[in-house]
Structure formats: structure tokens, C-alpha cells
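User: Okay, second chain of the day. Same drill as before: sequence in, C-alpha cells out.
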Amino acid sequence: MTRQMGIIAFCLLVPLGASFSADSGKKSEPVARIGDTVITESDMREALGMALFQAENTLYQTKRGWIDERVRDILFEREAKETKLSRFEWEAREIAARVAQPTQEEINAMLQRVPAEQSASTETLRRVTEYLSAQKRSSREEELYQQLSSKYSAKILLEEPSAPNIVPTYAADDPVKGPKDAAVTILEFTDFQCPWCQRSQEFVKRVEQKYKDKVRFVSRQFPLIRIHPRAKPAAEAALCAREQGKFWVFHEKLFEKQQLEDADFTRYAREAGLDKSQFEKCVKDHKYAARVDKDLLDGQRFGVQGTPTFFVNGQSVGFNNLEASVEQELAKAKAAPSK
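Assistant: Same drill. C-alpha cells below.
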């Protein structure tokens, strides 16, 4: 799966149709002023959504990792001093002497996860043994860390960022197929040049065939522009096909061979029975470029980092778990009391 790095643009206007819960203590703090116009912390957080949370969480994890190591170091030094041992002697007694060597059963279990052509080599055996030993040592260190944190009243005061409450949504004019009153809605963020997106379509078709009267499909665009230069033109072309009622036919043709030059778009349009002049003008004028950009921004707000990303009734799901997730949602709908 590929990853879209960074934020493409900053949007001052909050896209409609998504719920958001900001930190109540910060919601009204100004972050910028233009004359008498104020941009608040809440404006920023609503516009950036999960993209901002993910960035803050990455920073938090970096800080937390350093703090944990520093606290651990101080605790171990303090305990060694209390037992009148050097740090080296204390670790030898409390960690090294208490960590058992990997058993043959553990080694064999790990070797089963190694490619067959490598599993018999001496070097692989050495690496597996070292890995298992390091895991055991790490577990013992963590056990001591927890015990000593309690003994010496160690507390981590760094505040962890809270994930915003954002429900992935779609607009009334987004490409949709399936009954309006379907119990399950599958929202897809896709990239027509992405090989994983192409592969995911077999899972989508399987779900569509099995639950065609119970599931609603929605497609939104998330071209990974930095690594897939033809993905955005393809997304725009698909939306041009949509205005003639042929989005899903075009969607399938784009994924069928992933040939995405302008001449290919024209050929697909002809095969789909589109009005050639209308389609070509739409593509040439980049009529839906802004719409694709909005999908990208919304996707980032919803936590989309790569493609394909699927949401089943608002919950992010891997494409290989689509069928199981649909089954779960249908079971919930069936068990819910009728209104």
C-alpha cells in the first residue's frame, strides 16, 4: 500500500458534512488575525482533522519514546544504587541472569516464518536466536520498568493527543450505486494508477455480487500525485464520465488495464458510449480538478493516508476484510429494533 505524504493545501472553509469534536479548552484560541477576521484553533482542527492528529501523534510518540528511555535509565540507576551495586552488576543480576535462553521449540516456531531457502543456514539460526534473546531481555526490562515506576512513583506527564471524532461522509453528487436505504454503505477512496487499488476491485465485485440489494457503494478520489502522475487526470476523466451517467463503467475500464494516457480516456469514452465532444472538453478544461482536490483534503481529514482506503459504515476496513465487515454490519442492522 502506498502513502500520501504531507498535506496538499490548507483549507480555511470547513468542508460540509463531517462531525468534529475539538478540545474544548482550545477551540476559540486565535491562531491568526487578518484585520478583524480571526482564524481559531477550532477552525484549523476542523479543516485538518485526522491529518493534524496523525502529525501530532507522531510527534507525541517521538517525545514519549525519549521520555520512557530517560525515566527507565534513572529508575535503573536509582535501584542499583539502593542495592549497593554498580549499574552493570545490577543489570547482570536482575536482567541477564533472569532471562532464559530461547528454547528449541521457540527457535523452530520462528524459523517456520523464514523463507525455506534461508531457514537452514547457520547465519539465519544465529539471527533468530539473537532476536528471540533480545525479545526476552526487552520483556524483562519492561517488567522491571513497571515495578520500579510504582516503587519510585514515576509518572509520565506528557499529554497524549486525542483523536478527533470525525465521521467519513460523502456529498449527494458523489458517484454512488446501490439502494438509498441500504443497511451498509462502502465509501472508497481510490487512485486509478495504484496497483493495490486495482487488486482491491476483485474484493469489491465479490461483495457487490453477494449483497447487491443491501450495500451502497460510493467512490471518492485520492490520487497519490507524487508517485502516480496520471492518477489525477484519470480521476478527473472519471468524473467527466459521471456527468454523462457512465462513472462506474469508466471506473471499471480505468482499472481493467490501467492505461491512463489522454488517448486511452478518449477510447474508453467511445467504448462507454459517451458524447465525445462533451467528454473531451470536460477533460481539457479540467472541469473537476477542484473536486478531486476537495476529495483529497476530505480524505486526509478522515485519516486516509494511502490507497485504497475503504470505510464500511464509517469504519476503516482493509479491502481483504470487506466481506466480513459487511456481514457484521448487516447482522447489526438485523438485530437492531425496528423503528
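The chain is about 50% helix and 10% strand.

User: Thanks, on to the next one.
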